[in-house]
Amino acid sequence: MDHIASIAPHLLEFSPDALIVVDSRGLIRFANATTCALFGYTREQLRGQPIEMLVPERFQLRHGAHISGFMRDPANREMGARIADLFARRADGTEFPAGIRLAPFVDGDQTFVAAAIRDMTERRAINDALIAAREEADRANNAKTRFLATASHDLRQPLQTIRLLNASMLNMTPGAAPLHDLLETQEQAINSASRLLNSLLDITRLESGSVEPLLAPVGIDTIFADLKREFGPAAASKNLLLEFPEVQAVITTDRILLTQLLQNLIGNALKYTVRGTVRIVLHTDADALALDVEDTGMGIPEDKLERIFDEYYQVDPKGTQRSGVGLGLAIVREVSRLLGYSVAVSSKLGSGTRVRVRIPLQRLSSTPESQAAREAPLAEKAGAPRRGRIILVEDNDSVRAATELFLGLEGYETRSAGTVAEAEILLADLQPGDLLVSDYHLDDKLTGFDVLQSLRARHNRDVPAILLSGDLQSMKRIVKTDLPRCCFLSKPVDTNALLAAIERLIGA
User: Averaged in consecutive runs of 10 residues, what is the pLDDT profile of the chain (508 residues)?
Assistant: First the structure.
């Protein structure tokens, strides 16, 4: 202890920080050697001088106010903690960013303040470099987001044209076996490209933070009914059983996001299951409603389980055709995060996989889903005409021509318009049973939804309509999904889904 006491003055004198003691009048009473080296003054030049001599002139008036305030309520604290730029001035007039800690103490009946001052130039430079790097990374990420969103949106138009023309050629060549087979193979390639674009747009939107969950009571059975209609044909084509539980539970959630999460899980299960069953199971435990998606597929190797939620990562088990780009489970991860759910995977190679989504029990709702939301959006009104014309509104020439050709080959009388003004002329002659099929994005001011709303107001009835969009999720957030007698389809449109929607809206 005596040794430490003997070196204490030296520690104070040569501390890494400049140490200054100031009295209640703001006069310097002590400065260590580090202070002299940092500021360029001798000890004699500092002693008895006002502390403002070490403060840049532009800050001196404010500094005096700070000292007065501090002396009224002295306490250990960082000086200028709320000031972004705190500077000190050297003897030669140069300035440097400073970090200052204040500590009051009493000697006899006098109050003094000890100030530890550190040159923050290097740290400020590092911090500025980190901020610049982060801003550059943000700019690069935003540029990537804009590019992917724009590219995926713009590519939908030619892909929509190709899909419709391919479907038209399939109709025109029913007996030409080799050509028909080639067209079916081409249709599979078009479907794969469509899924890729949808996944890119989904993950881009989720990662950009532009999606805010819209919570409302939702009947799980209505979501299951939609999913069964969507994935039933795909399961049947592979001779797989697709099973959903009979439930009446209502949860508070974002219907669109939860549906998107389950779409990716079920689609993934069907992709990796060659024979057997894909089933959805619901059960509750002490604190959560567990929703399991189980399959009897190839399973996932244990050493790959940790990576399956990574973007662009795909498990490629032997015997299973590789498809997609590995974004499905990354989307599941992001949606689960947004909704406050947890998701976990268990699997055994050769025996199947189970993905469990845990929904907090407090999300179970005693409020029933609104009747309007439970009604099928394609429900037909009693007594509606069984056949009508189709009024097509599409501002892309090639998509409009391909859609008109496809619908004509399917036996529908179709009239088309490329602008809202042209559409108004056609819609002036609207007859009972006619159906509006419109792209959502028409021009800078009006949308297909605007056209539909105006049309319904003019005729005072729910004119049936199909709205198409390259960004279906965003459109559903703008347009109420319980809009009666209206169907929302994604571009590039699935031709079977388009025909099914038309049949259900205006009849065969």
Answer: 52 81 88 91 91 85 68 67 71 90 85 88 86 86 70 72 83 74 77 68 67 83 88 88 90 86 89 91 88 90 70 49 55 86 87 90 71 42 52 87 86 87 86 88 80 88 87 69 80 83 78
Would you say residue 496 lies in a domain? yes
Q: What pLDDT score was predicted for residue 122?
A: 87
* Residue 318 DSSP code: T
Q: Identify whether residues 363 and 468 lie together within a single domain.
A: no
Q: List Cα–Cα distances, 45 to 88, 89, 168, 184, 311, in angstroms.
A: 17, 14, 94, 92, 64
**109 and 186 both lie in a single domain:** no
Shortest CA distance to 421 belongs to which of 445, 389, 388, 437? 445
| Contact by Cβ (8 Å): 500, 379 | no
Burial class (CB in 10 A: 0-12, 13-18, 19+), 332: buried
Q: How far apart are CA 451 and CA 430, in angstroms?
A: 13
Host domain of residue 485: 390-506
pLDDT value for 386: 39
Same-domain status, 220 and 203? no
Per residue, the 3-state secondary structure of 325-365, as one string, reads CCCHHHHHHHHHHHHCCEEEEEEECCCEEEEEEEEEHHHEC
Torsion angles phi and psi, residue 332, rounded to 5: -60, -45
- Are 416 and 433 within one domain? yes
Taking the C-alpha atoms of residue 69 and residue 50, their distance in angstroms, rounded to an integer, is 17
State residue 65's pLDDT score.
65
Cα distance between residue 399 and residue 19, in whole Å: 76
Q: Are residues 396 and 336 in the same domain?
A: no
Cα–Cα dist 276/299, whole Å: 13
What is the reported pLDDT for 239? Answer: 93
Domain containing residue 500: CATH number: 3.40.50.2300
Residues 187, 106 within the same domain: no
Long-range contacts of 475-478 (CB under 8 A, 24+ apart): 475/440, 475/449, 476/256, 477/214, 477/256, 478/449
Q: Residue 392: what pLDDT?
A: 92
The reply to whether 395 and 501 lie within a common domain is: yes
State the total domains in the chain. Answer: 4
User: Residue 107 is part of a domain; what is its CATH number?
Assistant: 3.30.450.20
Same domain (yes/no): 261, 348: yes
- C-alpha 280 chain-centroid distance: 25
CATH of the domain at 221: 3.30.565.10
Q: Are 453 and 480 in contact (CB under 8 A)?
A: no
Note whether residue 410 is domain-resident.
Answer: yes
pLDDT given for residue 45 in this prediction: 92
